[in-house]
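hey so i finally got around to running the thing on that chain from the lab meeting. sorry it took forever, my laptop kept dying and i had to restart like 3 times. anyway pasting the input first so we r on the same page abt which one it is
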Amino acid sequence: MQGQQYGEQARDRVQRSRSAYEEVFGYYARWTWPKVTEEAQRFLAPIEDFGRDYAEEMRGIAEGAALPFEDILALNVRTEVMFAAKARHALAQMPRRAECTSFAVLPDANIDGHALIGQNWDWLLHAFDTVVVLEAKQEAKPNYVTVVEAGLLAKTGMNSAGIGLATNALVSDRDCGEPGVPYHVLLRAILDAETITGAICKLQANVRSSSANFLVASDEGVALDIEGTPGDFGSLRTLTPNRGAILHTNHLLAEHASVKDISLWAMPGSSVRLQRACRLLETAAELSPSTLQQLLADHADHPWSICCHADPKQVRLDQGATVASIVMDLNARHLWLADGQPCSVPYRELDYSDFLEKDTPNPSGEPHV
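ok and heres what got predicted. didnt touch it at all, straight out
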């Protein structure tokens, strides 16, 4: 079972994720872990309606990690549970922190003529100890690689169909924790897509529970940014490349009727990071994986910079930082990963040209962490 292999190989880190989020929910929402798992159960039916395989994958992770299924379910709906109506008062106590900066560059704007996509992933400090690189072979769907918190289904990644994915958290006044398809389940579903249109169809298929940004690109030289607020297909808006690139941070850029964007209240540095990233992209002599790595290491507006650092004036559980930095070449099937802040941690290059070769049979269906 795919999930079971994942849970077994990342058991220590999955268990660390569970312990860390028990502390996080206790701190922000004053909820016990049993209360968190109780709230998470409301999302099981929408997940199974969207794709029963994803619920089964979570059951497998739980079995492999020697944890109750309810714990893994809670990890995968952590975004939605935090915005549940009974916990909304906790928002007022949440710290103002930096979040993710993502990009996609089309082949004609890149010196190598390849499609590039990636991001800095900024989150709570415990994630330094829970990030894994998950490599999954699938029989009837594309193989994929994702950089993700242990125990969650997916985050940033690419697949053997040439599809790449980056993402940003968003917050709107519609984020009330109403049951729907959760954010991280949708990220996992996009990595099963064989085309960008297929990825859009995944986002349109059912009611979504939370606001989020999905940046999708392909090795065919197409990129599309999809902003979503809670709701059905009518709550999606798209953005296309400008001068061969798309940049996104943590606030809405498209016009969303009757939606109040509160992202800049929760993440006020978002507009600063977007301005800085745009400027660095415009003034770069050439674009390549190397220059994008330099962009992701930028410190303007430190510590809330693109390369985010913990603010020493905050208490530990309020601090956030860049916990991983990812650049992906969708044509060469290479991934560059800095296991922490890219200003100080060197990128390691991972060659997935064989693993993510198109039309490769997947006899085992087993992931590797």
